[in-house]
Write a structure and sequence with these properties.
The protein has 211 residues and is of the alpha+beta class. Helix content is 20%, strand content 27%. The protein contains 5 helices and 11 strands.
C-alpha cells in the first residue's frame, strides 16, 4: 500500500493564509453515511441536478476517484490515440475545474517500450509511480523508477518518460495557480534530450557499498 499526500502547504504558508477551525461543540463530527460524495457525484460524464444549488465550491465535492474509472479512461485513450503516452486530469464534477484551486491531479499511462515527447511547462510536478517500470529524463539526467517510487519535475525542466512495460504514473502539480495568474506556458521539444548523467538514489548507493 502507498499513502501519498500532495499538499499546497508551502504556497499557502508563504501567502500567510493558513487557518485552523475547530469543529463546533465538544463532539466529533457526526457520520451520516459512507461514500456519499461518490453516490452523488461519481457518475462518469454526469452532473447531478440538486434543486437550488449553492455557489459551486472551489474544491471538488467528490472525495473518491476510483482507479477502475481511471484505468478504463487511460486504456481507451491509449488505444484510440495510438501514442506513446496519454494523460487525464481529475476535475471538479460540478465546474470542470481542477480538483483544488491550488493543486491539479493527473494520471498518465505510458505504452510499453515507448518514450513520450520531451516537454517543458511553467509548473512543478510530483510524480508517483503506480505500476510498471521505466525511466524519466529530467534536464538531461536519467531517473530510473518502478512501482512505489516518487520523483519531482521542477518548473520549466525538460522531461520525457519511457516505460519498460505499460506503466501508470500519478502526478500533482501547481499548474492551477499559474493558470489563474496568467503565468502558465508549455513547450514541446522537437527532439529527445541528450542523456548527460544518471541519478543514483540512496538505495543503489547502499547496495553498491555493501557489495
Amino acid at each position: 500500500m502507498i499513502w501519498f499526500d500532495g499538499l499546497d502547504l508551502p504556497l499557502v504558508s508563504h501567502l500567510d493564509a493558513i487557518f485552523f477551525e475547530q469543529f463546533p461543540g465538544d463532539d466529533m463530527q457526526p457520520v451520516h453515511g459512507h461514500n456519499i460524495s461518490e453516490a452523488i457525484y461519481g457518475g462518469r460524464a454526469t452532473r447531478p441536478q440538486l434543486g437550488n444549488p449553492a455557489v459551486p465550491p472551489t474544491y471538488s465535492p467528490l472525495l473518491t476517484y476510483r482507479y477502475d474509472d481511471t484505468n478504463k479512461s487511460l486504456g481507451a485513450l491509449l488505444t484510440r490515440l495510438n501514442t506513446a503516452m496519454v494523460s487525464i486530469e481529475y476535475v471538479n464534477p460540478v465546474t470542470g475545474a481542477s480538483v483544488l484551486p491550488t493543486i491539479g491531479c493527473h494520471a498518465h499511462r505510458i505504452a510499453e517500450g515507448q518514450r513520450s515527447a520531451a516537454r517543458r511547462e511553467v509548473a512543478s510536478s510530483i510524480f508517483v509511480v503506480f505500476r510498471g517500470s521505466g525511466d524519466s529524463v529530467i534536464d538531461g539526467t536519467k531517473f530510473e523508477w518502478s512501482a512505489g517510487d516518487i520523483f519531482v519535475v521542477p518548473s520549466w525542466a525538460c522531461v520525457e518518460h519511457h516505460a519498460n512495460v505499460e506503466s501508470d504514473l500519478f502526478s500533482v502539480t501547481d499548474k492551477p495557480v499559474l493558470k489563474a495568474l496568467g503565468l502558465y506556458r508549455e513547450h514541446t521539444e522537437s527532439l529527445p534530450q541528450e542523456v548527460t548523467g544518471s541519478f543514483e538514489g540512496r538505495r543503489q548507493q547502499l547496495i553498491s557499498a555493501t557489495g
